[in-house]
Amino acid sequence: MLYEIQTYGKEVLRTRTEEIPQIDDDLRVFVANMFETMYAAEGIGLAAPQVNKSIRLFVIDLSPLRENEGKRVFVNPQILEYGETQDEYEEGCLSIPTVHEIVTRPTSIRITYQDMNGQHYDEQIDGFLARVIQHEYDHLEKTLFVDHLSSLKRSLLKKTLKKIASGEIEVEASENYEL
Ligand code: NI
Known about the structure:
The protein contains 3 helices and 7 strands, in the order αβββββββαα. By secondary structure, the chain is α+β, with helices and mostly antiparallel strands. The protein is globular. The two termini are about 20 Å apart. The model has no long low-confidence stretch (mean pLDDT about 95). Nickel (II) ion (NI) binds near residues 93 and 179. Nickel (II) ion binds near residues 93, 94 and 179.
């Protein structure tokens, strides 16, 4: 089942997310639908608030862009540390259609999370996966990638963001592999 992707201006993207107390069949169905929704929109990452659910979970599948990568689910993630080195990458977001901007982020993180079997992980992650995780994690923290831009850049985007908020610009599957 496809969910409707919530776009810029929707309150759910700015709502506090709740820890997931238990991994049950309802959650498994939810995650399957999230992957379906993400693939239909040709995204490579999707966070629960983007499909109108204020819980701490996101899914990632970098396989369209990176070999040896596949489906990943992060339940109750917590980023504990950010590396000192930063890099730049042009990000997009399924919730902010047509907008692409360079965002500077740390190249490595240390993160704890659970998988769908409830197993706990504590991992050091770097490179492109660390970038995508930080973008999705931001969604759980009510933050969007445009919040990282300079006020000048943001003011230049104001009109476009207004159009998204009013529904004039809608989500479309694109070849950009949005986060
Ligand atoms: Ni996003």
